[in-house]
Specification:
Structural class: mainly beta
Distance between the termini: 113 Å
Radius of gyration: 48 Å
Oligomer: single chain
Number of strands: 46
Helix content: under 10%
Largest sheet: 7 strands, antiparallel
Number of helices: 8
Mean pLDDT: 90
Low-confidence stretches: 599-605
Amino acid sequence: DEEYKALESFLGVCSGSGTGCIDAIGWRGTDQGTQLKSGGSSGFNFLLAGYNNMVGSFVNQDISGLLWSTSENYGAYTWARFFYSSKAGVNRYFYDKKYGYSVRCLRSPTPCGGESSVSYEGQNYNLVEIGDQCWIADNLNVGDMIDSSVDPSSSSVEKWCYDNNSTSCTSQGGLYTWAEAMQLDPSCNNGSCAGSINVNHQGICPAGYHIPTDVEIKTLEMSLGMTQEQANLVGVRGTDEGTQLKIGGTSGFGFRLAGYYGDSFYNSGSYGYMWSASEIINTNKAWSRTLSALTSVDHSSGSKAFGYFVRCLKTISTPNNPSAPSSPIIISLVASSSTVQINWTGVSGAIYYAVSSTIPGQEIIAPVSQTNYTFSDLSPGTSYSFQVQATDDYSQSSNFSSVSSTATLLPDPPAAPSSISNTPSSSSIIINWDAVFGADYYTIFVGLPNQSQTVIIGTNTDSQPQPISRNWDYSTAEFLYLKSELGSLNGNISSLAFYKASGNTGVTIEDVTIYLKHTTATILSSGSISMTGYIQVYSGAFPNTASSGWSSVNFNTPFAYDGTSNLQILVVKGYQAKVGTPPSYRFTSTGANRASNYKSKYYQSDTPWSVSSDSTATVNRSNIQLGYYTGDIFGSIIFTTTTLDTSYNFTGLSPNTMYHFQMSATDAYSQTSVSSTIYSATTLP
């Protein structure tokens, strides 16, 4: 219907919807029907061939004739044109689609309108049709050559020629700054000139042609096979579109890898650069394309002050400048301890988004296909604010979105210090521990034990060179004590003693490790020993300085007894060669197998005890004294300190005295770990 109107308007029908004018319904015009009928001056030569009236009858031949359009009206009807022998005008009306009317065809215009070249400024440029676009098929070479030491002015069109050689412009085209190509003030190379950019911006192109926008170059690329998703990406993308666009490529675009001008001339023969009309708002950059030896196309931005080549696109229509895009809406901010991901709504007409933040130096440009961005390497526990702005193909920008703020999370608190060891003397204890990731400093609490209580199990005076034996190279002993035997014991077991009956006091006992665990077992069996559930409470030497009596060690780590279970104790002595008159310790027969032992004689030193070694169950169980504390294991805190190191020497301590140590780690955000296990150490006599 609109194309019929264009024809009628051309023949003189008045514009508008007034009586007899182009948009009216019914008879319109003056003599345009006469001009269009057979013998009329237009040459349209429409024959009044009648029509079919839906019921099989053919009527009004030589009296009237009707022409269908493709434009529907009210669904079941279509606009048509009605000519009558006695009428000079043209009737515009809509009719039932079941009528049989005549048809005329209109040739669809080609992008280049049948033209194969255009003459401009004394030069002839070939044209090439690619998809629905008509391109000048070579780089523009217009304007006056200036030396590369001189910046283009606004007085006339000026260009650089590669290597300051005019023949380079003749063979390859001129190199233009963005402002020069757009014919804008040179100051536009240093910032935004969005208000000066028009739809179909002519710039230095011939009349009827314009500098292509970023979207129009994407349309070119998609005509050659690039997907919309690929075209929207920034950077190198696509498959073989670059090959098609270069000299010798199948598209006929014939783009040359002729370099560019920055502070010098670069990359001739390796790269070629082409401006778009689309600037990146609030920057000194504009979108461009780079072709190279790669088969794909680089969608990037270049400094507007650089000299790139210019291609022109034929202007098919010149619409009014569209409205600026609407503002994006920030949907969410997702924070971790070092990142924030910002998510926003997509905006119709946008070709990219600018993300502004309070992060120093962080102004991000995101392609239109991207509606989120993750800022990284941020400081934990810090508040940041963000806004997003959309820009369209004509460098029109929306208002920034409302400010959205969030704080990065704090990292997890540090772990408690572990692997704590000690080196005692008679007046000091040096403690060492493994460094804790993220710790800024360590706090150490030192205290004296709570007042100790003891329980003794076994009263017999018989003795044997067990459980800690120097009568063999290796020894291991395991004991089981029933809850009923432990009596009132309830709390932290902090020491263990065996009763020495006799033996040489000059014999040292070293490399002793003691383990405790809760159990429901009531007897022990011969065979291997299971380590499941055992907790190491002591590692070091075992005393042998008294001729007889209780020989005691204070645990490095007190054992938290649950007050209801039976208790198993495992004592393992590492290698020491057999000696004469070793210490013997009192034992009591239990009547049930609640002890087992493993030993290897001195001539079997290559077979130390392991969990798979066979131990022999026995009723002879060593008498034992267990020391324990109820309530807080610290009787009193005598010293608190902080340190940046992983070692500390506590001095001025009393000889032969047990001290407890507990530690925590604190990070740079004042987050403190849970307290470590309580460790114990005893100064030497």
